[in-house]
Amino acid sequence: MYTIAETEIFKNKAAKLLKEDERLFFFAQLSQNPYAGDVIPNGGGLRKIRVARQGSGKSGGYRVIYFNILVDGLIVCLDIYAKNDKENLKPSELKSLKGQRHDS
Q1: Domain coordinates in residue numbering, the chain
Q2: Is pLDDT larger for residue 102 or for residue 80?
């Protein structure tokens, strides 16, 4: 199992989108399978994983952007958003998230 870290941006957004039990369940699943998310093209190792929303499944749920520092036993959650808010990250958002890898 790996340790899950959260950026402030992730914490704030997750608090609005996920119930505490959903958040903890997601973290447990991710720590058991840190490669679960798809690698984002040109994302510098960032991954995007689908998280089911209660009552709607994965397709209408949330997306979490994260990266792994597995040699240190760490998975860092950078961002979360509802799929109905946006399908993919804008290039400027991706660039900003890539920069956060070094701030963690």
Answers
A1: 3-99
A2: 80
What residues contact 2, with CB distance under 8 A and at least 6 apart? 30, 31, 34, 68, 70, 73, 74, 75
The pLDDT of residue 6 is above 90:
yes
* Mean pLDDT in residue range 22-38: 93
Q: What is the pTM of this model?
A: 0.87
- Which residues are 50's β-sheet partners? 63
Q: Just give the CATH number of 3-99.
A: 3.30.2310.20
